Amino acid sequence: MDHFLYRNGSLHAEDVPISDIAAAVGTPFYVYSTATLLRHFTLFDEALDGMDHMVCYAMKAASNQAILMTLAQAGAGMDVVSVGEYLRAKAAGVPGERIVFSGVGKTADEIRVALEGGIRQFNVESEPEMEVLNAVALSLGKIAPITIRINPDVDARTHAKIATGKSENKFGIPIARAREVYARAGAMPGLDVVGIDVHIGSQLTELEPFETAYRKVAELTEALRADGHHIRRLDLGGGLGIPYEQSNSAPPLPLDYGALIKRKVGHLGCEIEIEPGRLIAGNAGIMVSAVIYVKQGEGRDFLIIDGAMNDLIRPAMYDAHHDIVPVVEPRPGIERQPYDIVGPVCESGDTFARQRAMPPLTAGDLVAFRSAGAYGAVMSSEYNTRPLIPEVLVKGDQFAVIRPRPTFDEIIKRDTIPEWL
Ligand SMILES: Cc1ncc(COP(=O)(O)O)c(C=O)c1O
Ligand SMILES: N[C@@H](CCCC[NH3+])C(=O)O
């Protein structure tokens, strides 16, 4: 169920006209639908029905505290990758027992904060990290619950920049060395080895790579149990993809993914964690932008909009496709024309789409980038001294700004000038 639909000829977020939000907050902005966030969380939660499980939302996808609170109130845990995310999740009211800590470069300071504040488990990614974690835990008189992230050497068949499960990627420990590393962990008094972690990549559009990875995890669970480890929890990561192009065939559904998990690891009797990010937030958010100019180029028309690569970097970074639709519903049968849709930033890479067929648009018209809820606002920057754009949350017929646009004064005052200058 899409919560961004045309009604009476204009695009809505749930029951709120996008043009009302634009009038209130200015453009560009991100807007999220509470109903979509909750629906996607529930799809995963129900897909694991009958198993002891926790859906730990990968908050890197969209980390506004209002989003975290919405999901946490529905029962979500959180997957964090930095102490900043940990503190943000805590600030949104998520208890430490519902937070898992992933990431290849956790520092001793980050580990200390999480151990002191409470944590469900650390997903350890290397032997040096294991040693630091053990030392910090002992210094605090605590025992740190851990899984070890294994790298199963599986091709996730996704964009190379977001594949994480091949042996050449920096993530996890090689599965071939897992028994040896678990033996070391098991002997460390500051660690409690509770399970295994795996995450092979993002925007997976087929189940087969998950199937291979989870088969390897199941085999390893049995081997480690035979070695005497009390493996009782499996963190199976995130990564299930979303349809970015409405014209394309859709990736597998959470229900199919849940059934696969049951088939592959259900017999082991472990508690299951999953860490979906994109599928929960991606299609729960859009970015809205206004046309500044329509410019005639050599053999092409440029639609110059007020959103730019600093606001939504996915097209520049991964050549990602986002559907872009006018906020005013095009008349049926209207002739479309090709535009290069670009932002105002001083780079040719600041291009959202080339020769994209759109109904004719003019200055002031609003356009919406679909599927922009995940890895959108969180990856934005102030490049070109462009303020971070506001985030808005809709629930039914209500909307609220959940991160305001900073003023230029606020941005400029952040710099400090040395007294010797
Ligand atoms: C450890 C970990 N868990 C979960 C995720 C979430 O992935 P996705 O947003 O593709 O579901 C990521 C990002 O790929 C990750 O690195
Ligand atoms: N930033 C990436 C996803 C990275 C996933 C990281 N765990 C994207 O926009 O597709």
UniProtKB/TrEMBL annotation:
Fetch the Pfam families from UniProt.
Answer: Orn_Arg_deC_N, Orn_DAP_Arg_deC
Looking up InterPro entries in the UniProt record yields: Ala_racemase/Decarboxylase_C, DAP_deCOOHase_LysA, De-COase2_C, De-COase2_CS, De-COase2_N, Orn/DAP/Arg_de-COase, PLP-binding_barrel
Q: What is its EC number?
A: 4.1.1.20
Q: Which UniProt keywords apply?
A: Amino-acid biosynthesis, Decarboxylase, Lyase, Lysine biosynthesis, Pyridoxal phosphate
- In this protein, which residues make up the domain named Orn/DAP/Arg decarboxylase 2 N-terminal? 36-281
**Domain named Orn/DAP/Arg decarboxylase 2 C-terminal: which ranges?**
29-373
Its EC top class is lyase
**What gene codes for this chain?**
lysA
Q: Which NCBIfam families match?
A: lysA (TIGR01048)
Q: Which residues bind substrate?
A: 278, 314, 318, 347, 375
Relate the assembly described in the record.
Homodimer.
Q: Which residues bind pyridoxal 5'-phosphate?
A: 239, 275-278, 375
- Name the GO terms of the biological process aspect: lysine biosynthetic process via diaminopimelate
Q: Name one GO molecular function term.
A: pyridoxal phosphate binding
Catalysed reaction(s) here are: meso-2,6-diaminopimelate + H(+) = L-lysine + CO2
Please report the organism this UniProt entry assigns to the protein. Sedimentitalea arenosa
Active site as annotated: 346 (proton donor)
* Annotated function: Specifically catalyzes the decarboxylation of meso-diaminopimelate (meso-DAP) to L-lysine.
The protein's annotated pathway: Amino-acid biosynthesis; L-lysine biosynthesis via DAP pathway; L-lysine from DL-2,6-diaminopimelate: step 1/1
Q: Can you name this protein?
A: Diaminopimelate decarboxylase
Family named by the database record: Belongs to the Orn/Lys/Arg decarboxylase class-II family. LysA subfamily.
